[in-house]
Specification:
Elements: E1 9-18, E2 21-31, E3 36-40, H1 47-55, E4 60-68, E5 71-72, H2 78-84, E6 86-89, E7 96-100, H3 101-112, H4 119-133, E8 143-144, H5 150-164, E9 168-172, H6 180-194, E10 203-208, E11 221-226, E12 229-234, H7 237-245, H8 248-257
Parallel strand pairs: 3-10, 3-11, 6-9, 9-10
Antiparallel strand pairs: 1-2, 1-4, 4-5, 7-8, 11-12
Helix pairs in contact: 3-5, 4-5, 5-6
């Protein structure tokens, strides 16, 4: 039975241990439909651990509460979390030689939304999204991420996200290693989903170390994570503050409060 809850990806008191070491030490945040939250922090602060905790990494011991539009996310297996509407973009997407991009995307859509589109309609959707992202149709005949550049891998993830149109997307260091053109494509993809152009307003949690991607996607809320805790939350201006001053000032402020 689902608890009464407002819409949103709601995280409360989330803790995570890996191999007996506590990484996340009580995370609270809510990502609303159509909103963009940026989670920033230095390397090793626990940002990627949060992403994998939400999506169900089997080696992570997780406690606390996470609800996706009222559904208890932690009670679901990883594949069912995806079906519930959660999407994770990996920092380093895996290459799978022998699996064509078109077949992978069709299988992903079927796994999340079984039988909702006839083959002809799926192909039309795929071509539409590829055109929006400036992806050549020959891309579909290549093997998944095999020999892809960093920008091509990210464009494929954005295409996958556009095809799946999730309720909430967690983007883990999506800007890592991208050139300006690829960053613009990522920003355009996020903007389309955020605005509800794909049939629903997707909420985003963008995990990043540097604020580069935030030049192309203006966040509603910026959180700063240090040592497994969110120590500061603010508006888009907080990202510019970090760009100017780094994390040392925020680290000192959080240490003084503790």
């Amino acid at each position: 039975m689902k608890p009464m809850s407002e819409k949103g990806l709601r995280v409360a008191g989330l803790r995570c241990s890996v191999a007996g070491t506590e990484i996340l030490k009580g995370i609270d945040l809510t990502v609303e439909p159509g909103s963009v939250h940026a989670l920033m922090g230095p390397n090793g602060s626990g940002k990627s651990t949060l992403a994998f905790s939400l999506t169900g990494h089997p080696q992570y011991e997780v406690t606390g509460k996470v609800f996706l539009d009222g559904e208890d996310l932690l009670a679901l297996a990883p594949d069912k979390r995806a079906r519930a509407g959660l999407f994770l973009s990996f920092q380093y997407p895996a290459a799978i030689p022998g699996v064509k991009v078109a077949n992978f995307l069709h299988a992903a859509r079927q796994a999340v939304r079984p039988g909702d589109l006839a083959p002809a309609k799926f192909r039309a959707l795929l071509l539409e999204k590829m055109d929006q992202l400036g992806i050549d149709p020959s891309f579909m005949g290549r093997y998944l991420n095999d020999g892809f550049s960093g920008g091509e891998k990210k464009r494929l993830e954005m295409l996958q996200m556009a095809v799946l149109a999730p309720k909430y997307a967690v983007l883990d260091e999506t800007d890592s290693g991208l050139d300006v053109d690829a960053l613009k494509d990522v920003g355009a993809s996020i903007g389309a989903l955020r605005a509800g152009e794909e049939g629903g307003e997707t909420g985003f949690l963008i995990i990043t170390h540097y604020p580069r991607i935030l030049q192309y996607v203006v966040p509603d809320v910026v959180h700063v994570m240090i040592d497994g805790r969110i120590v500061k939350t603010g508006g888009a201006g907080l990202a510019h503050e970090i760009e100017r001053e780094g994390y040392d000032k925020i680290r000192e402020e959080s240490a003084a409060v503790a």
